[in-house]
Amino acid sequence: MSARRRPKEMPRPRAILFDWDNTLVDSWATIHDALNFLMRAMDKPEWSLAETRERVRLSLRESFPLHFGERWEEAREIYLDRFRAIHLDRLAALPGREAMLRSLADAGIFLGVVSNKTGALLRREVEQLGWASFFGSVVGAGDATADKPACEPVHLALSESGVMPGEEVWFVGDTAVDMECAQNAGCVAVLLGPPATPEEYSREFIRFPPHLSFNDGVSLFRSLEGLRIDGMRPSS
Predict the structure, then answer these.
(1) Which end of the chain has fewer CB atoms at under 10 Å, N or C?
(2) H or E stretch covering 137
């Protein structure tokens, strides 16, 4: 599957899997608060918001042993306790995302979530926003045998869909870990969000570039409408 293909060169997806944090919801302030609460508890230097945005990619079971060594499980509990205390009060959908999800669901596309947020917390947030009816599967960290960027959570998310990983599955996210996960699973990697600067692109996406990129949910949905219309045209 070549990178940066035009949408009209691809089949219309039968399933779309979404990352959660900062793809569908605005989570940076909450993650940053909980991380610095943890850093103070562990007598470690606090991170700037820019450092949080750059470093937070993997699940807790993947990233915390790197940062906290043998104390990583203690650190995980401190972080999760703080996160649980604040996340629902601060939860906010990104602009236009609910309308996008509703349109996609109404179009008959199977929708799922694959996130590196702990599964129980992820599902609480989905319920809090009233979005559970949009998704056929919600897979978080710890639900599969491995977390993103491994392919296992994608396979789990698709297990109830009747759709196999491939060009009929889009994986939509905002980071290179999402693009890597899509490519590991053999799906179409879709970047959703403001365009990256050349410096950000070379640092973040040079190894795992997206196949498609959209600035917002409206442009993503319109591209699918174009695929549907094109697919209905008789071949010449």
Answers:
(1) C
(2) strand 137-141
